[in-house]
Amino acid sequence: MQLHKSFKALLAGAVIGFGLAACGGGSAGSEPAASGNASNASAAAVAGDDALAQIKERGVIRIGVFGDKPPFGYVDAEGKNQGFDVEIAKYLANDLLGSPDKVEFVLTEAANRVEYVRSGKVDLILANFTQTPERAEVVDFASPYMNVALGVVSPKGAPITDISQLEGKTLLVNKGTTADAYFSKNHPNINLLKFDQNTETFDALKDGRGVALAHDNALLWAWAKENPNFEVAIGNIGPAEHIAPAVRQGNRSLLDWVNQEIAAIKQDGRLNAAYDKTLRPVYGDKEAEILAK
């Protein structure tokens, strides 16, 4: 089974220039703080409870996905959304609205995922979103569907096999990713060069603007397979983490429904079918390691 396009072509031709959505913020009212907060919380709860009904009334679910991160989310040569996250999005649209075409894909970048959810630009994020305690403070995560850890890819001729080799050197990362957060917090002596888009980050590695690139290990294995002059010499950094859908805080009805859906596609085999279609050509028989139970 072959991938639709090589990662080299996909990353080079990925969609760029996605719009930025501003995060909305609350303001204090004229009432005492306790009363004002209670009123705001009540209003948010009501709005959240209506989220699922609003999607049904609209007749389309807006789901944030990547446009340049194959094999998870990318735009193919015909301008169509493809990838593992896209397959899951189609399952959700079909079950909720009766057709896999009832989904509006909203292209996002790593740094925009939280604000897209909080601002209401999307109903749901399925953009290879790692569940972290910090993110859980500002969005509501549903049940995970994938396991992930960080890795480091570097040129085969100058492999980075240990993090200590990065001290005082430039490491490439994407803004707003777990790689950005991890190295910023734990390795301040490593110089980070940050980019918005995956295309820019991988091009910078090829151009030698950094000695290595840190990202989700699953993505790096896939990219290195298509770029044989590079290797993932560090395949696992930090604690094991999970990829999960996320909704706006307080959208309880939508969150509960997504949890039911994730459980259903795990049980009825559709999650494995999505793996077979999009990930097996890259990872082979690693579904037991990659797919969350």
Automatic annotation (TrEMBL):
Q: Which branch of life, at top level?
A: Bacteria
Q: Fetch the SMART domains from UniProt.
A: PBPb
Coiled-coil annotated residue ranges, if any: none
Q: Does the keyword Transport apply?
A: yes
Q: Where is the Solute-binding protein family 3/N-terminal domain?
A: 60-282
**Signal sequence coordinates:** 1-21
Recorded hits in CDD domains, A to Z, give: PBP2_Cysteine
Task: Name the Gene3D superfamilies for this protein.
Answer: Periplasmic binding protein-like II
Arranged from A to Z, the UniProt key words for this protein are: Signal, Transport
What InterPro entries does UniProt report for this protein, alphabetically? Bact_solute-bind_prot3 (IPR051455), SBP_3_CS (IPR018313), Solute-binding_3/MltF_N (IPR001638)
| Family, similarity comment | Belongs to the bacterial solute-binding protein 3 family.
Protein name, entry field: Cysteine ABC transporter substrate-binding protein
Organism field: Eikenella glucosivorans
